[in-house]
Write a structure and sequence with these properties.
single chain, alpha+beta, 6 helices, 24% strand
């Protein structure tokens, strides 16, 4: 049986475990939490664009990791919060077009502090859209239903006190995730692209 929807995934998990009285939706949610920690794939990329005029900017909802941050087309360099604090101290917190950023207390800190209105573009890796009754599929289920299946089954093993199965489900999950990661890297770097000739 193919796994293309949330309901089909639940049915397959119940079939593998030969039980219909288990918290299968919890197993799936735990698998999604693990995939959000473990998976880095170009299909997770999202972009947010908006005005910025302040020193601190909130992270986008569902943010996992920044790919690129730019202010009015100028790509910013990432520094540590200690480095940005040192730069502020040495330059007495000058204002201007930001050139650096750091992650400070759960926000993005820009340096220099913007001296006017700029456009912030944030390319980042976002969370996988969680499966639910109203969201019956997502790209991971489309591309790697085995990762969802075995990732969910991993969390059934402690619940059922089936330690022997934990290693089996874990190996199959790791293999599925590794295959998906490799596919993502190949796709992200596919094509020869145009070559720029320097004269």
């Amino acid at each position: 049986m193919a796994i293309t929807t949330y309901a089909e995934l639940q049915a397959q998990i119940e079939g593998y475990l030969d039980r219909t009285d288990l918290p299968v939706t919890t197993f799936i949610a735990l698998a999604e939490a693990a995939m959000n920690r473990d998976l880095r794939h170009w299909r997770m990329e999202a972009r947010s664009t908006g005005p910025v005029s302040a020193r601190f900017v909130d992270l986008p909802s569902g943010w996992r990791e920044t790919v690129r941050l730019s202010v009015s087309r100028r790509v910013l360099d990432l520094v540590s919060d200690d480095e940005i604090a040192t730069m502020r101290a040495q330059a007495e917190d000058t204002a201007g077009q930001p050139a650096y950023y750091a992650f400070t207390a759960g926000q993005i800190e820009l340096y220099p502090t913007p001296d006017g209105d700029y456009t912030l573009e944030h390319v980042y890796l976002g969370e996988i859209a969680a499966l639910s009754v109203s969201n019956t599929s997502n790209w991971v289920l489309d591309q790697a239903p085995d990762a969802y299946l075995y990732g969910s089954l991993i969390h059934s093993a402690p619940y059922l006190v089936e330690d022997a199965r934990l290693a089996t489900w874990g190996d199959l999950y790791a293999s599925a995730l590794d295959s998906l990661q490799r596919e993502g890297k190949r796709a992200a770097h596919s094509g020869s692209g145009r070559k720029i000739k320097v004269r």
